[in-house]
Amino acid sequence: MLLLAGLVIVIISLLYTNRIASQIAEQERSKAELWASAFIAINNAPEDADLTFISSIIINNKSIPAILTNPVGDIQASVNLDTSRIDLNRQLENMKKTHPPIEVESYGVKQYLYHNNSKVLTALQYFPFIQLALIAMFLGVGYLSFSSARRAEQNQVWVGMAKETAHQLGTPISSMVAWHEHLKADAEGNEYTQSILKEFRKDVGRLEIIAERFSKIGSKPELKPADINQVLAKTFEYMKRRAAKGVSFHYPSVTEQTHFVNLNPPLFDWVLENLLKNALDALGGKGSISAEVFEDEQHTYIDISDTGKGIPSGKLKTVFQPGYTTKKRGWGLGLSLTKRIIENYHSGRIFVKESLINEGTTFRIQLPK
Question: What's the structural domain count of the chain?
C-alpha cells in the first residue's frame, strides 16, 4: 500500500510538472524569439532611432541561453553564455539537438535562433525524478524500520516464551528430584526398583538440560573452546540409542584430528539434536545419517547429511522460517530455533547445502575458528 501510494504521488507530480514545464518552455521560446527580433532591430536601426525599449528587451533576458546564426550557420550573436569558458560551436550543436530553430527574418534575410532551457526549467524537469528518489528512500527506510520493529517484537515474544517455559519447568523438576531421592531411600536394597529409579533420574536430568537450554535463550551465552568431534560423538550416541535399528550413524572419531571452536554446549547440542531428529523423520526408519568436519583458515564446517526423502527446491528458503514443518504433529520451530542459536549466539551460519528428492539432504554449519 505504501508503494502504491508513492507511485500515485509520483505519477500525479510527473504529469503536473510536465504540464507546467511545457508552458514555461513555450514562454521561453517566445522570449528567445523576442530577443532575436530585438537584436536584429538594433543592428538595422537608423542612427537617430530611440532604442531604449528594444535595448531593455535584450538586457532583461538573463536566463535563457540563445545563439543567433545567419543562413549558412555562422554565429551572429549569443546571450547568457560565458564565451570564455564555453565553446559556442559545441554549444550550438547541443542547442540544435534540444529545440528546433526559430526563423527570424530581417529585411528579407532569414536568420536562425537556437536556445536551451533555462536553469529553472531544467530543474523543474528533473524535479519528479528527484521526488521519486526521495519517496523511494522514504519507503525503503520505512520498510526497514517496520521490519526491524517486527523482528524485535518477535524476538521479545520468543525470548519471553523461552524463559517462561524454563521457569514453569523448574518447579516440577525440583519436585521430581526430591521424590526421586525419597523413593531411592525407601527402596534401598531393592535392585529392580533402584534400576527403574536410575532410568527415572536420567529422564529428570534430561528435563533439567531442556530447562537450562530454554533459560539461555535471550541472554548472552558463555562460549567455551570445544572439540567438535567430541560434541558430535556425544550427540550421535544419544540419538543412536533412540533410533530405529535400520538407521546407521557415521561420524568422526574422537581420536581423529581435533577441530576446536567456541561453543555453548547446551545450546549447540540442541542444534545437533534438532538436525538429527529431522534427519530421522526424513528416513522413516531406514537409511543413514552422517557427519563430516573440515576447516579452512577462518572457519570450521560441519556437514550433517541423511539419505532421506529430501526437501523440495521451492522450500529451501523457507525451511528456517517459524511454522515450517512437513510433520502432522509439531510446531515447526526446530530449524528456526537452530538458525537463531547458530547465527545470534555463535556468530555462524547454517544453510541447506544440498537436497535431492528421495536421495537426501545436507545441512552445513559454518562457525568461526
Answer: 3
